[in-house]
Specification:
The complex is a heterodimer of chains A (about 260) and B (about 325). Chain A has about 260 residues and is of the alpha/beta class. Chain A folds into 2 domains: about 200 residues, Rossmann fold; about 30 residues, no CATH class. Chain A contains 6 helices and 13 strands. In chain A, a hairpin with a 2-residue loop joins β8 and β9. The longest helix of chain A is centred in the first third of the chain and has 17 residues. Chain B folds into 2 domains: about 170 residues, HUPs (Rossmann fold, 3-Layer(aba) Sandwich); about 120 residues, TPP-binding domain (Rossmann fold), CATH 3.40.50.1220. In chain B, the strands form 4 sheets. Chain B has a 7-stranded parallel beta sheet, with helices on both faces. A 5-stranded parallel beta sheet of chain B has the order 15-14-16-17-18. Chain B has a 3-stranded antiparallel beta sheet with strand order 8-9-10, with no helix packed on it. The longest helix of chain B has 16 residues. The chains are: A alpha/beta (about 260), B alpha/beta (about 325). The structure holds flavin-adenine dinucleotide. The site of flavin-adenine dinucleotide has 27 residues of chain B, from α6, α7 and α9.
């Protein structure tokens, strides 16, 4: 079984976010990057599939130098090989352009299963998995909490509002991982050491057959400005003993806020 | 030339989602005199056009056959693609639900088009729309321009008001024949989750509990408050990870994003990742015994106190008022 995993390096969620001077994006200087949390479930699932079915695992990450650490981390967890999709034009791409780059890297690889996290934390778009499936002309199951693969068929359970859906079909398939799919392992010392010695393949736009086609100036979606959210008006802490506080709260919710 | 707005209305079990009617109402407000077309896909769903009609679309397209009884990405993508071909809209709207997040990016890629999910504001900018998408746990807002011939937008539930008119409107209702030629991933079963009766992302009131409730045996204290308010039950990740409650209740960066009218956080400290999921709530109430807890910085009203004392009293007080 050939398994591809696509992961994204995202700012640590604890990072203090500042805007860039020209408000074109956030200020990335000094930001610490980590594997997007949902991608960890995708990596873990790939490792388990290989443990059960044999085969090989490949991890892809598109972007700048921040990708190296997350690719090494995936290798340290046990993924066989890593490819960094790196090109000056692959900077701050929208979801569709990202999916195009990933599709170019994956399409002739003969992969049976392509795994991604259900959402890249930070951008919070939840678009790349479905777009990638469309570009590869493959079936998709997004936001999965359970996966069984038997022979060349899959059975996945996805989370929907108030229910779980079981979705079945034949490989190859694109799957996006939701929290709950598995418990990701941490890389051990041996894995970390081995990962250090491994080579990370690098492919640029030209190698992917995408020269001159990708870039923020080529996409129909433009981030016009990054802004801060409006300040919430200063709240109030209610005074008095518990009975008074509770009475005051109900009054305020009814009369002032008018939400009950 | 592409013009107007096509709105995909999500239905399951013969009911249109409220969030879809919000998207339709917002489309009407943004249409600027252009046509607004609603799309309903399913089996035996013709009667639902009466529900959609209340939000006054110009036209309602109905794709009704057994192939669409359950949602499937490829089936519904075929239906939406046919509808796009039929009405040639400038924008496609849908509510940001698990169905739309699965469907809209796929169809956007098919049209090589711009797509923005989880949109919290829409503005007219010249002859186009500009949208706001909260990013980085709500710490920033991306303002986006969508410049494709047809562009895709999903609206965050509970932000946009439903606008219904009871009388006089008669949308043109059109049967749209669609056959999906390949559905490679098929839904073979749907299991309703236990417990939650009101869907978190659409609830107008949410009562959420964190580590401050001490243990899963104490959920009943919050459930009583939920019962009184008709609220859905939310949770912090700490208590989901501890196994006190199912992940479907988790609010936050790795849980659900919610924007209810009222969010009552009980024994939740207010970590940035939790705030990511609920900071766009209209009114936030915090009940926490630590006056320094970060949640108080974001709360409209705060009570410094013990959840085990405050919540039962609050439930009683509310009962008096509703009785
Ligand atoms: C990548 C990442 C993603 C994350 N995603 C999420 C997410 O989606 N959602 C989420 O919620 N968190 C998320 N977290 C975790 C987050 O950082 C916090 O750890 C978590 O929200 C804390 O949960 P809590 O408020 O219940 O617990 P705590 O932080 O332990 O807070 C408990 C609070 O209860 C109060 N308390 C205790 N006893 C009482 C009492 N008797 N009466 C009243 N108050 C009391 C305490 O004063 C305290 O403020 C994420 C973290 C990371 C790193």
């Amino acid at each position: 079984m050939k398994i591809a995993v696509c992961i994204k390096a995202v700012p640590d969620t604890e990072t203090k976010i500042n805007l860039a001077g020209d408000k074109s994006n956030i200020d990335f200087t000094g930001v610490r990057f980590l594997t997007s949390p949902y991608d960890e479930f995708a990596i873990e699932e790939a490792l388990r599939l290989k443990e059960k079915n044999g085969g090989e695992t490949m991890v892809f990450s598109m972007g700048g130098a921040e990708c190296t650490d997350v690719l090494r981390d995936a290798l340290a967890r046990g993924v066989d090989n890593a490819t960094h999709l790196s090109d000056p034009s692959f900077t701050n791409l929208d979801p569709l352009s990202t999916a195009k780059v990933l599709a170019a890297a994956i399409k002739d690889g003969g992969y049976d299963v392509i795994l991604l996290g259900q959402q890249g934390v930070g951008g919070d778009n939840s678009q790349v998995p479905a777009m990638l499936a469309e570009l590869l002309d493959l079936p998709q199951v997004t936001v999965i909490m359970k996966l069984e693969i038997t022979g060349n068929t899959f059975k996945a359970e996805r989370e929907i509002e108030g229910a779980h859906e079981t979705v079945e079909g034949t490989l190859p398939v694109v799957l996006s991982a939701q929290k709950g799919l598995n418990e990701p392992r941490y890389p051990g010392i041996k894995g970390v050491m081995a990962a250090r010695r491994k080579e990370i393949a690098v492919k640029n736009a030209e190698a992917l057959g995408l020269a001159g086609t990708i870039g923020t100036d080529k996409a129909p979606l433009k981030l016009k400005e990054m802004a801060l959210p409006p300040e919430r008006p200063q709240g109030r802490v209610l005074e008095g003993d518990v009975d008074t506080q509770v009475k005051t709260l109900v009054e305020l919710l009814k009369k002032e806020a008018q939400v009950i | 030339m592409a013009s107007g707005i096509l709105v995909f209305l999500e239905q399951r079990n013969g009911a249109i989602r409220k969030a879809s009617l919000e998207a339709l109402s917002e489309a009407r407000r943004q249409a600027n005199g252009k046509e607004v077309t609603a799309l309903i896909v399913g089996e035996n769903v013709k009667a639902l056009s009466a529900v959609a009609n209340k939000c006054k679309p110009t036209k309602i397209l109905v794709v009704d056959n057994a192939q669409f009884a359950n949602y499937s990405t490829e089936g519904y993508a075929a239906a939406l693609t046919t509808a796009i071909k039929t009405v040639d809209p400038q924008y496609v709207f849908a509510a940001n639900t698990s169905m739309a997040k699965d469907l809209m990016p796929r169809v956007a890629a098919r049209h090589d088009a711009a797509c923005v999910t989880d949109v919290s504001e829409i503005h007219v900018a010249g002859d186009r729309l500009e949208v706001v998408h909260p990013m980085y746990s709500g710490k920033t807002r991306g303002i986006f321009e969508l410049k494709s011939n047809v562009s895709f937008i999903t609206t965050r539930p509970n932000i946009f008001a439903v606008q219904e008119a009871e009388n006089g409107h008669h949308a043109e209702i059109v049967d749209l024949p669609v056959t999906a030629d390949k559905i490679r991933a098929k839904v073979t079963a749907i299991h309703a989750s236990e417990g939650q009766k009101i869907e978190l992302s659409e609830a107008s009131v949410i009562v959420a509990g964190g580590r401050g409730i001490k243990g899963p045996e104490n959920w009943n204290i919050l459930e009583n408050l939920c019962g009184t308010l008709g609220a859905a039950l939310g949770a912090s990740r700490a208590v989901v990870d501890a196994g006190w409650i199912d992940h479907q209740h988790q609010v936050g960066q790795t849980g659900k994003v919610v924007s209810p009218q009222l969010y009552i956080a009980c024994g939740i400290s207010g970590a940035i990742q939790h705030l990511a999921g609920m900071s766009s709530s209209k009114v936030i109430v915090a009940i926490n015994k630590d006056a320094e807890a970060p949640i108080f910085k974001h709360a409209t009203y705060g009570i410094v106190g013990d959840v085990f004392e405050v919540v039962p009293k609050l439930t009683e007080e509310l009962k008096k008022h509703s009785g």
